[in-house]
Amino acid sequence: MTTGALLPVFALMTSLTAAVIIFTLPEQKHQLRTAVNLIAAVLKLLLVGLMIWGVFQGREYGISFPMIPGVEFVLRADALAMLFAGLSASWWLLTTVYAVGYLEDSPNRSRFFGFFSLCVASTMGIALAGNLFTFFLFYEMLTLSTYPLVVHRGTQQALRAGRTYIIYTLTGGAVLLFGIAMLHGFSGDLPFRPGGHFADMSPDLQAPLTLVFVILIAGLGVKAAIVPLHGWLPTAMVAPAPVSALLHAVAVVKAGAFGIVRVVFEIYGLETANALGLLWGLAAIAAFTIIYGSARALSQSDLKRRLAFSTVSQVSYIILGLCLAGPVGVAGGLVHLVHQGVMKITLFFCAGNYAETLGIHRIDELDGAGRRMPGTSVAFTLAAFGMIGTPPLAGFITKWTMGTGALAAGMDWVIAVLVISSLLNAAYFLPVLNRIWFREQKNAWPEERQWGRFETSAWLLWPPLITAGFLVLAGLLASASFSPLGWVELIVAREVDL
Amino acid sequence: MTLWLMAGLLFTPLAWAVLTLLAGFRRGRVVTWLGIAIQVLVSLALWAVVVRDGGFQYPLGGWQAPLGIELRVDGLAVTFVLLTALVAAASGLHAGFYLDPDKQWHRYFWPLFWFLWAGLNVVWLGNDLFNLYVGLELISLSAVGLVALGGQSEALRAALRYLMAALLGSLAYLLGVALFYGEFGSLSLSGIASALGQDSSGDGTGFALVLMLFGLALKTALFPMHRWLPPAHGIARSPVSALLSALVVKGSFYIAARLWLELGAPLGSLALAQLLGLLGGMAVFWGGWQALRQRKLKQVVAYSSVAQIGYLFLLFPLTWNTTEAAALQAQQAMTLQVISHALAKAAMFLSAGNLIMSVGSNRVNALAGVSHFLPFSLFSFGLAGVSLMGLPPTGGFAAKWLFLQASLATGQWWWLVVLLGGGLLSAAYVFRVYRASFVEDSNIDHFFHPARRLEIIPMILALLSLGLGLMAEPVLSVMALTFANGEGT
């Protein structure tokens, strides 16, 4: 076994080790804990960077061993895995920085950061899982490790949200397990493989395969917040802002979407899934979710709740992209995995800054916030324009690529969905921007707090500025080979031979 | 060599029972430490020998079956011997520091503990129906004594109720044994099995099997005969509850499983197999539902045992008249469930004991806000809970996965409802405890941290139960070892 084979294990171990160390540290050792957190995050980013470089050159890293009779534990770094791993490793670093600032002076930090690290370890496992079974293992670990984060504040509202969250996700997990067990029952242990396993299946497998597909998507759809399985997401927004960022941008919803990508691409195969007529149904649900989420976002007066419904809508772009079943459309969907992440994480960071610095939770309290917090507001504005799809920001790249893909696939109605959704995005983001920049401040801020020499604590200010910068660069440099889009095109070239 | 080891496993506990009977609590504790060390080493040695050479059957004292005491050990038996050593050692060490040495009657913990251990080893290693009965009685009587050790009138009531159930179970079992002896003139399990294979004269003995299974199911607290278990396991001192839930109920279940696997094919029926599975399924739901409704922490854990025992009974329908591969999967699932439940439940009771000690109350709601103090025991409790929910990568998950596969392979899809629904129900009652611990607006401001040695023991057990899922393959490969010198002697 070479060290290369162990790279995925190391990447996983960095955050697991960090979790164990943090849990054993006493509550008062704040600086040491922050150091452990940051070292682990940087180390992980380096390891993932190393793997990305290797995978780019065509290498594959992996390790496997038998776990239960008939089932292997497989970790494998391929191009698709690296997309998600890179996303989670880089945003983990920023979210950690942000969380350190956000939770300053609050209790239970040891517990928070311990589970936070476990959560990121699960995300890494989800990215690197080499078969459905290993994927499921980390998928459930993610559920368990995010629960303490959601209920972190311990208020009745938080506990209720936690209960909703856990009921939805564990039930989804049980459904997913059912699907995986059925699939295993008639075809054995299936490693993820480009092109899938059912390219030349016998006709009598068609009916059970269709059934299993529906079950798998229903299970994964809970975390991916597909309507009508999205109910937990708006409720869970009572969690602290860094947790929301994690739930919405990096870990939970992405785990669901990523699982759907794996199932469609590497278990069924895009072509087989299309031939079975499964993608049509999925596309219809995704399109409905996109419109529904945006429409619900319009009527929310709480800022984080509006963002939550926007997530419901945006995650389904990824799924809709897959259903376009052509190289361009698929690239549009996959790249949104990263783009939605970077935009949504920026928005939640900013919402957290408004809440922590000025005590603002409702949208009508935002009047004049731009003057008081220019840095945060610029980042927020960029991300909002990105979501709407203004060129040259990241969101535009997604929508443009998906639009071209839809035309190529002959699914013109998708263009209509994209346009309606963009209009709705504009309808719920522009009034917010209007209040931030063009309204005069009417009342005193609900709960203002002076924090350092900038508009807010530097720990809170830098992360959204960096992610906002990234979402501009992802758009401007989209044609470079190391942009998200470039990497996705590499994936598509390797995964899909259409 | 093997014989000496097996004899050591049986006689050391008996000798230590007598020794500790003569000593007080504190001296008994020191004596017990030595005994635990010996037992663990001997169990490990036996395990190593079986891994190297395979299993053995041995007539003790030169008497051949059907008269003498016949000992046998195979991969499954030695796995359970080792499991017993592990859990008993953990509970014994924990009890030494947990029980109040100044209470007069606590000195009887040690002899009862050792009698229990002896009885368990007799059950794992015995090969004839009467010896198994002796082991079973030894277990039941010492278990009842241990429950009564709680001291209060409530504990005595629970113990008495337990005693009634145990005696009724033994009686049914003994009747069945007598019927078998009358029919075949043999008490050896393998002897009866081979006699049954030769001719079909044993038609009348189907009733005997049903009787024995009834008695054993009563002792295992299978729904709806479970009513004695929650009060007994709930009221006992925590290390005792750990022993009872982790090991005692498994003793009677092990005999039932062996009877079924050796005699089930000729004597059982589809209806009987499905009935046992159905009762198991109902146990999963009823036990889970009741666990969700209990106010006291240890009652939650006790009802969870009722539910978890239910899974074990899926063995019966999944091995009756099914393909060899599916039957093997079901047996593997059963073994993993026994091991992981034993480890997780012992961890849970021990950590529940620590938590109760810390907050000074046995109610679930008294845990409000304790996660604030980062109690180590809450973490152990949580980890054990993950295994009970059957989430990966725990041993409980591995067992559930294999049960799922066996159900699908045999086309008995209705067990999927039990397996998946039961998992969700256990998540519900485990999360109820977590939820209480996260409440922030409670006004507790102090928390008594138990000694580290008390906290580390459940943590080790919980981690083992977690790791079992990752290590299931090697554990199962030991379990699959049969006799080196062929079936029977």
Notable traits:
heterodimer, A: 498 residues, mainly alpha, two-stranded antiparallel ribbon, 2 strands, globular, B: 489 residues, two-stranded antiparallel sheet, 75% helix
What's the layout of helices and strands?
The complex is a heterodimer of chains A (498) and B (489).
Chain A: H1 3-24, H2 30-56, E1 61-68, E2 71-77, H3 79-102, H4 109-128, H5 132-150, H6 156-187, H7 206-223, H8 232-235, H9 241-250, H10 252-268, H11 270-275, H12 278-298, H13 303-323, H14 327-358, H15 369-372, H16 374-388, H17 394-409, H18 413-438, H19 458-476, H20 484-495
Antiparallel strand pairs in A: 1-2
Helix pairs in contact in A: 1-2, 1-4, 2-3, 3-4, 3-9, 3-14, 3-19, 4-5, 5-6, 5-10, 6-7, 7-10, 9-10, 9-14, 10-13, 12-13, 12-18, 13-14, 14-16, 14-17, 14-19, 14-20, 16-18, 16-19, 17-18, 17-19
Chain B: H1 2-22, H2 25-53, E1 56-60, E2 69-73, H3 75-98, H4 109-125, H5 129-148, H6 153-184, H7 189-198, H8 205-220, H9 229-235, H10 238-267, H11 270-293, H12 297-312, H13 315-319, H14 324-359, H15 376-389, H16 395-409, H17 414-438, H18 452-470, H19 472-479
Antiparallel strand pairs in B: 1-2
Quick take:
Chain A is mostly helical.
Question: Can you give a write-up of this model?
Answer:
The complex is a heterodimer of chains A (498) and B (489). Chain A has 20 helices and 2 strands. In chain A, α9 runs parallel beside α10. Chain A starts with a helix and ends with a helix. By secondary structure, chain A is mainly alpha-helical. In chain A, strands 1-2 form a two-stranded antiparallel sheet. The longest helix of chain A is centred in the middle third of the chain and has 32 residues. Chain A has a domain of 215 residues. With 489 residues, chain B is mostly helical. Chain B has a domain of 219 residues. Chain B is built from 19 helices and 2 strands. A two-stranded antiparallel sheet of chain B has the order 1-2. In chain B, α6 crosses α9, α10 runs parallel beside α12 and α11 packs parallel to α17. Chain B starts with a helix and ends in a 10-residue tail after the last helix. At the A-B interface, β1, α5 and α6 of A face α15, α16, α17 and α19 of B.
